Every structure is written in C-alpha cells, then in structure tokens.
TrEMBL record:
Name of the protein in its database record: 3-phenylpropionate/cinnamic acid dioxygenase small subunit
GO MF term (any one): dioxygenase activity
Organism classification: Bacteria, Bacillati, Actinomycetota, Actinomycetes, Actinopolysporales
Source organism superkingdom: Bacteria
Keyword Transferase: no
Domain SnoaL-like residues, every copy: 4-123
InterPro entries found in the cross-reference section: NTF2-like_dom_sf, SnoaL-like
One protein family per Pfam: SnoaL_4
Keyword line: Dioxygenase, Oxidoreductase
Amino acid sequence: MARAMNDRERIVDALARLARATDARDWHTIRTTFTEDATGYGCTGVDRIVEVMQAHLGGCGPTQHLLGNHRVTVDGDNARSLTYGRVHHRGAADKAGSFFECMGEYDDRWVRTSLGWRLAHRNFDMHIALGDFTVLQPAA
C-alpha cells in the first residue's frame, strides 16, 4: 500500500521539479513554483524573478542543476529548506565551448498554499565559481 508523501518529500519533489524546469527553460512551471510576491535573485515578485532567470539563461546553452543534501524544517504552514547545488552552464553562440559552473547552497523559504508548497524566498550562497560567468546571457 502506497503512503502519502509527507511535507519534506513534497518540498524535495518541488525542488527537483524546479531544477528540471530551469534546465528545460519551462518558465510556466518555474512561475507556478513561486508565490506571486516571492523574493529572490535580487528582486521581488514572480514576474521579475522569471525575467531575471530569463536574462541569465535565455541565451545560455544547456544547463544542469544538481541538488542534494536536503535539510527541510517544517513549522506548520511554513518551511525552510537548505539544499546543496552544483550548477553547470554551457555557453552558446559566440560563447560555445565556454562554461560557467557554480557550487553552493540554496536557502529557501516555503509557504503552504491551497495549491501546495510554494517558494516565498530563495537565496543561493555561491561557494565556488569556475569558468566564464558571461555564458549567462539573455536570448538574442
């Protein structure tokens, strides 16, 4: 008999969906992962968050967001997750052959909504950066 997912599992699953959506440039799924008034990526509001992500990834080649070492604390309808991230970005167009890779930790704040857990705040503390940051660029 299958058991229902608990809150920790739901949040870890949402993190995996967000990583996959980011690599696929699935802006709709990214948008639905955040609350409307979310903060992160140096801005406020889901529309602005998506714009910033598009400005970095729209003209970048393939990416891979690997997540691990999940620590999730749930307090009622609020939660915090700390997750290691290793992110590889390949260059595109005039940056083909270049890469940018970063390793660090996502510090995310979640709220339970009628649609499930949604990100209210996201911060990435970059510990290691390798390669050419300029591979992160908007679409031409």
